[in-house]
Write a structure and sequence with these properties.
Number of strands: 7
CATH topology: Aminopeptidase
Strand order of the largest sheet: 1-2-3-4-5-7-6
CATH class: Alpha Beta
Order of helices and strands: EHEEEHEHEHHE
Strand content: 25-35%
Radius of gyration: 14 Å
Number of domains: 1
Helix content: 25-40%
Number of helices: 5
Bound molecules: coenzyme A
């Protein structure tokens, strides 16, 4: 699987995949976000992104295209995004999810009270506006 950084002009396939999966897609072009596509045999099989600066970052927009789920792709993409973050000096990865809590918990993320999130994470558009209060907040310290 090949990981490719997406420029702001390349975000349409990601936007389409997020909308199809019911994930927030309104803020993709705002600054401070880095998105990637994961391609296999010349087709996009997954997308994901990292948002923010400093040692706490938001992992977001992780989506495996329908028809490709349940085959380990999500796990590979998550590991690749974590490796990217670690390489950038990130210590803690944070995320919100409405439907994939068990997936992330199986990869070392712990459900936390939202009030425990660092200020930089609370200030993200996802926390403030895009994700409903029902979304679970999870975090993981990168090894
Ligand atoms: C969550 C998601 C990225 C997982 O990708 P995937 O390629 O199916 O995951 P994998 O094949 O690596 O892992 C599958 C495992 O995760 C579990 N799993 C997958 N999606 C899950 C979900 N939504 N909730 C709970 N468990 C889930 C499967 O049961 C399976 O468990 P097993 O290994 O014990 O059988 C994918 O289902 C997806 O794109 N969902 C829609 C978008 C989304 O909810 N993204 C997360 C919010 S950022």
């Amino acid at each position: 699987m090949h990981m490719t950084a997406l420029s702001n002009d390349d975000l349409e396939p990601l936007r389409d995949a997020l909308i199809l999966a019911g994930l927030p897609a309104d803020d993709l072009n705002l600054p401070g976000r880095r998105f990637f596509s994961f391609r296999q045999q010349d087709s996009d099989v997954a997308f994901g992104g990292i948002e923010g600066t400093g040692s706490d970052r938001l992992l977001r927009s992780l989506v495996v295209v329908e028809g490709r789920r349940g085959q380990g792709t999500g796990a590979l993409v998550l590991a690749a995004l974590e490796a990217f973050a670690k390489n950038e000096g990130v210590e803690w990865v944070h995320l919100l999810t409405e439907s994939a809590t068990a997936f992330f918990a199986a990869h070392g993320y712990q459900v936390q009270e939202r009030s425990l999130a660092p200020a930089s994470i609370c200030a993200t558009v996802q926390f403030k506006r895009l994700c409903p209060a029902s979304a679970a907040y999870l975090s993981k310290r990168l090894a």
